[in-house]
């Protein structure tokens, strides 16, 4: 019997984070969406982009811990985006692009804090990744799912996502599908 667990990470634009984790062994599903906000109802992409709802662009991934651990997923997450920039990733600026880990258990929280502490010496600047209790995940509309694979020729994919995938392949070759 296969045990499945979920993780929720926000590393700026969800298209980037989704593209990374779709390539990782043991990850069985990845959905782009929003979490961490306080606006009532189901937020729209336009509302999220305004920065007024408090939500972050995130991915919710399902993984098999017998193939890849939560700790390993965190290492991939923390090294394929910039966890030292507050409320931004590159040209994407606003609280919706914050670096965040939404934990779903005390074990996930403790693991996230331990990984951040372990990685801090490797970064010149302070890691500002927020570690917060998971709130409701809202799945984004269909056009935001599997965005990279459906739009590889898009300039954003070429200039922003491709370098993240190159870094993934360089640092985590043994974790790739």
Helix segment count? Answer: 6
Write the element-wise H/E pattern from the N-terminal end onward.
EHEHEHEEEHEEHH
Beta-strand share of residues: 15-25%
Number of domains: 1
Mean of all residue-level pLDDT scores: 94
Describe the strand arrangement of the main beta sheet, using strand numbers: 7-6-1-3-2-8
CATH class descriptor name: Alpha Beta
Q: CATH fold name, please?
A: Peptide Methionine Sulfoxide Reductase, Chain A
Main beta sheet strand tally, sense and closure: 6 strands, mixed
CATH architecture grouping: 2-Layer Sandwich
Description:
The protein is of the alpha+beta class and 177 residues long. The protein contains 6 helices and 8 strands; from the N terminus they run E-H-E-H-E-H-E-E-E-H-E-E-H-H. The protein is globular, with a radius of gyration of 15 Å. The chain has one domain (5-175): Peptide Methionine Sulfoxide Reductase, Chain A (2-Layer Sandwich). Strand 6 (99-103), helix 4 and strand 7 form a beta-alpha-beta unit.
């Amino acid at each position: 019997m296969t045990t499945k667990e979920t993780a929720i990470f926000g590393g700026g634009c969800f298209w980037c984070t989704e593209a990374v984790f779709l390539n990782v062994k043991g990850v069985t599903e990845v959905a782009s969406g929003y979490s961490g906000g306080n606006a009532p109802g189901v937020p729209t992409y336009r509302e999220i982009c305004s920065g007024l709802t408090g939500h972050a662009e995130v991915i919710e991934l399902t993984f098999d811990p017998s193939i890849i651990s939560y700790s390993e997923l965190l290492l991939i997450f923390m090294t394929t985006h910039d966890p030292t920039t507050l409320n931004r990733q590159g040209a994407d600026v606003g609280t919706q692009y914050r670096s965040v880990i939404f934990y779903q258990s005390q074990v996930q929280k403790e693991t996230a804090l331990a990984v951040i502490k372990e990685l801090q010496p490797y970064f010149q600047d302070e890691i500002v990744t927020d570690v917060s209790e998971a709130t409701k995940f809202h799945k984004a509309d269909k056009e935001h799912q599997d965005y990279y694979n459906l739009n590889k020729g898009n300039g954003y994919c070429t200039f922003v996502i491709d370098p993240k995938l190159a870094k993934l392949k360089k640092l985590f070759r043994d974790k790739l599908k």
